[in-house]
Every structure is written in C-alpha cells, then in structure tokens.
Please model this.
Amino acid sequence: MSSDMSSHEEPEERPAAGAAGAAGAGGTAEAEGGPAVPERRAAGSGWDWRRPELVMALVVAGLGGFVLAGTADVSAASSTLGLGPRFFPVLVGIALLLIGVCYAADVVRGGRGDPEESEDVDAAAPADWRTVAQVSVIFLAFAGLVDPLGWIIAGALLFFGLAVTLGAEHRLRAGALAIVLSTLSYLAFVKGLGVSLPAGLLSGVI
Amino acid sequence: MLLDGFATALTPVNLLYALAGVTLGTLVGVLPGIGPAMTVALLLPITFNVPPAGAFIMFAGIYYGGMYGGSTTSILLNTPGESSSMITALEGNKMARRGRAAQALATAAIGSFVAGTIATGLLVVAAPLVVDFAISFGPEDYFALAVLAFTAVSSVLSRSVVRGLASLGFGLVIGLVGIDEQTGQARLTLGVPQLLGGIEVVVVAVGLFALGEALYVASRLRHGEPEIIPVGRAFLGRSDWSRSWRPWLRGTALGFPFGALPGGGAEIPTFLSYSIERRLARGVAREEYGRGAIEGVAGPEAANNASAAGTLVPLLTLGLPTSATAAIMLAAFQQYGLQPGPQLFDHNPALVWGMIASLFLGNAMLLVLNLPLAPVWAKVLHIPRPYLYAGIVLFAALGVYALNASWVDLVVLYVLGLLGFAMRCFGLPIAPAVIGMILGPMAEIQLRRALAIGAGDAAVLVRSPIAAALLALSLLALLTPLVRALVRRLLARRAGSR
Model:
C-alpha cells in the first residue's frame, strides 16, 4: 500500500485534466493517456477505504436512499394518475443513487476533484481541522445565543470569536470592531430597513 | 418600452437605488474571496423592504458592480478566486507587476462599460424576440429547458461530470424539502415545523457560498500578507486605446451569446477571447503576451461583462437561470411573487424595462465610480483576513436571521455551510447545486403538469419538437465528456500498441 497517496487528509495537487471524463465508463485506469498515467496508477492501486472523497460519494448515494425512504410515507394522497408528491422525489432519489455509485467508482479508479482555488486559500497546506471545529462551535453557539442575548451582543461575540480564531493579532481592536459592526448593522437593519432583530439584554437601552 | 423603462429608472429615488446598488456591489465584489454570486446572495436581504421596481434596479446595480469589483481583485491580487475572472488575472496581474496597474484597471473598466452597454442593447433587441417565441411553450418545453440547464451546468462548468451531477443532486434534494405545492404533503421535513415552508434560497446561497467559503478558508488560510500592487488613478494612454478597442468588441461578440446559452457561463467566452487575442497579437502585443499585454485584459473582461448581460436573456424571458448568480436573481424575483418568463413582460413591463434601463445607467455610474476611485477600492484589499472572514460570516448570519428571526435557519445555514465546505474540498462545483435547488421545484411542476396533460403517457415529453430538441441537447451535454474520454482512451491505446 503506497501510503504517500492514501493516508493524506487532503487531496494533493493534480493535473487539471486528471479527474475529467472518468465517470461511469468502463476501462482501466492505465488506459488514460498523457503524463498523468503514473500518478493515476499510483492512486488507483493505493486507495483505501478511509479516503474521504469516497465518503463524499457514499453521502451522495446515502442521500438518494434517504430521499426514497424519507418520502415513503407521503404517497398516501397521490393523485389518480400516479403523479403524486412522491413521483419526482423518487426520480431524484434513484438518480442520486446512480450518481453516488458512479462517483464512488470514479474515486476507486483514481479520479479526484481538484480542491477549489481561492484568493486566501493555500490549497497545498494541510487542512487545519482545529480551526474549522472552533469556527463551528462559535457559530453554533451564536445560533443558540442570538435570541436570549440579542443581536448586538451575540453578533459582537460572533465577530470577535471568529476574528481571534482566524488569527487577529490585536484583541482589543478586534473587540472594538466587533462592537462597532454589530451595533451599526443593528441600527442599519432595524432603523434603516425596518427589519426586526432581537434586542435581547439591551432592550430598552436601544 | 425602453423609454418607459428609462422614465422609471430616472426618478431620483430609483437613481439613488441604482447608485447604492453599484457602490455596494463594487465594494463587496472587490473583497477577496467574494465573487459576483456571493455578492448578490449577501446583499439580497438588503432589498427585502424596498418596493419591487427599486429593488430590481438596486439588484441590477449589485450584479454589474460585483463584476467590476471582481476584476479589480484579480488584477491587483494574483490569486484568482472567481473562475470567470481567472483569465483576467493572467495578463492583468502581470501588467500590474510591470507598473501598468492603472492601465489594466482602466481597460477592464472601460471594456466592461463598452461590453456591458452593447450587450444590454442586444438584450433589449433579443428579449422581445425570445418572448414571442416562448409564448407558445407548453409545460413539456419548460421541463426540457430545465433539464437542459441542469445537464449543461453540471457537465460544462465542471471538469468531472459525476461531480457536477452530484452537486446538482444536492440542490435538487434541498429544493424538495417542504410542502408539495400541488398536494399539500410535507416532504423531507424531518418533523421540523420550520422546514415546512422549504429552505429559503438566501439560506442555501449564503450557506454554500459565504459560510462554506469561510470554513474552507479557516481550514487552510494562506498565512502571511498577500502581495497587493499599489495603484493610482486608472487611465489609458493613446496607444492603449488603440490596442484595446478591438479586443473589447471581439470579447463582447463572444461573451453575449455564450452567456445566453444554458451552461455557457463566463468561463468559456473569457478563455476563447484570451486565446483569440493571443493569436491575433502582432508587434508589441505579440512580444508582451504572457508578460502583461493589455489585449489579454481588454478582451476577456469585455467577454465577462457581455456574458453577464447575456445570462439575463434566458433569465428574464424564460425564467431560466444559466449561472449561479442568475439563479439567485431568479430567487429575488420569487421573493416578490414574480415569475420571470414571457408573462412578466406582459404583466410587469414597467418593472422589467425599468430594470433593463437601469443596467445602462448602472454601467455608466460604474465607469465614473471605477476610474478615479481605483485606489480606494484597492485599499479594500488590505483588510486583514481574520476581520474580513469574521465580517462575511457576521453578515451572512445577519441576512439569514433577518428572514424569519429564527435560530433554526441559522442551524440550517451552518449545515449548508458544511456542505459547501466539503464540496470545495472535493472539487464539487457550487453552481449546479444552486441552480438545481431553484429550478428543481419548477421542473417538477412542469413535469407533473405535462404528464397530467398526457394522461400519464411519458411520450408527451418529446411530442413537441422543441422539447425533443432540448432533451436531445441535454443528452449531448451529458455524453460529450464521456465520448471525449473514450476517444482519448482509444487514441492512447492505439499509440500504446504501436
């Protein structure tokens, strides 16, 4: 097992054309032309079940199963022509199962998606799961706290928490910015646009 | 008609909406990591409490402003985020590095203005023609159109068809959640009452784009200061003018038709324009190509903006979004209970033509805004990344929470953000999901309507020649990459056996 390809959490850089067109069709990986051949072969022989992209393919197929199962109980009131509310979900569910299988086949045969490029993203860097987890916790905490604390306080905490997590150097400045931004957005939306946001703890003050 | 539109657009209030739209659009579009689609999604909530005509005028401004802003980012900061401005970065950033940032920005801005104006003119001519043609469309034709949009966006816009289709599938499933309009049955709501009304488009778009991007950036933030090239006022010299105007026109000619086609998008015409300009380059241009030739900025930028106007043709006349940005625009129409299509031109001419007229005005405003203010926009690029992404998430949360004041929406937003994050990691394109989510329910309604008319006979779907042709095209869109792969494989095998 060539651990160099399989044990990494994140996909390495690959030639752009590598992933294209490998969908569904028969044939073996080594038939693919061009300079990508050696890499493909390495990826093809070195895959293992832990490869996260395979999980993604299973999620697709699983979602298809979920759609089929989850709409099993809605067919009761279907119309006379058999075109009830379950007709389209069944189509979508079957399609997703098929797509999931083709996707998995593609991954098993060495196909890979290129991680998206972005201005502030270093695609070659290893994924930093800790920061992702911290961002998640902060956001979900915000979702739970926005009603009791009100927009201004919860919003300021959200901004401050994220800025610090993402590496803001001056905590004081981040805190000040957080308060200014959440207060300004509250005023702009509530007073300017007439959208209602919770005042929470500060109700009566603002 | 267009004159009436100008009468609508030229009222002081609507002019203000247009100005606010282009300014906000440019400002948010310049922010790194934010492309036109995310710009439109993030700013959608701002238009909620504005009357329809004003909202769409503002929206048109945001749309065009976001395009302008994107080109500034790709010229001054050489790490292209948006695929449509990737080509601009090729020559544009090299020009900037050689001290010609002002000229690169100017040719992008003026080229966008020229292309946007011509293409909006073409939109004025083309829209009524398409409306006349589409007025006879039956449900099976609309269903076939939706299928074509699905397959085209999944296979043309992504390098891997399965990954495009997987993304489309996510979107279709999201679109299924909620009460079925025809029978009142709840589908896939998991017993959560807040999901009965379906998942709002804003939540999906903001989740997949804004929160997904923020999580993705969190996972692998580029450390260290990005290199940003300082710039003064944008201007063009005499020789730059003479080198730019032909690429502008050629880019417009390429961009508009591609934008109007399902799945055409901006990527293909910008790339075509880039390679055509390289082939046509003579003299200085030939020497400079690859090191920062102005032609390589002028052509693709014009193509980019012309395709943006092109996407409005199917969007307004057929209700068919051909890009993620257009899909979000369609959602904006639906917020007001309006369904773009031939009827929209009949029932709401003031609104449609007002919006089209404001595209001309917005373009002119953007030109004025962008040439002298280039240094100001460049400053936006210096925002420290932690603040930038914290701010993006704050405003994403604000827009979503403002919809229903419900924390459930925020949790749904987070789940969709995770999905967007995973899709980015695995190279699944986002656009098919957004289009599937918005167009899926429409496809379902038309399919059921068509089958009901045909008394359950599936042959009704191909009885109309238009529908049959569109479905054949869809099949072609799906099979083309497969055939290409097979041919390549056969050639490789032959080469191997020799």
Residues 87-108 of chain A form the longest helix (22 residues). Residues 1-50 of chain A have pLDDT under 50 and may be disordered. Chain A touches chain B through 106 residues (CB under 8 Å).
